[in-house]
Amino acid sequence: MCLICGWVYDEEQGSLEDGIPAGTLWDDVPMNWTCPECGARKEDFEMTAI
Q: Are 1 and 40 in contact (CB under 8 A)?
């Protein structure tokens, strides 16, 4: 979950609009990827259980 805006990355869904296919593990998301909602860096995310 993005600590800035609360957007949640779902590994099952990926982030198709950013070129990250469904099923992509968080660890496999590139370090230069940014939050599609607010532009926060990957390091600004924290693992959460939903």
A: no
Domain of residue 37: give its range.
Answer: 1-50
pLDDT at residue 42 in the model: 96
Are 11 and 23 in contact by the 8 Å Cβ rule? The answer is yes
Buried b (16+ CB within 10 A) or exposed e, 12-28: eebbeeeebeeebeeee
Give the amino acid at 15: S
The CATH code of the domain that includes 29 is 2.20.28.10
Indicate the pTM of the whole model.
Answer: 0.85
Amino acid in position 24: T
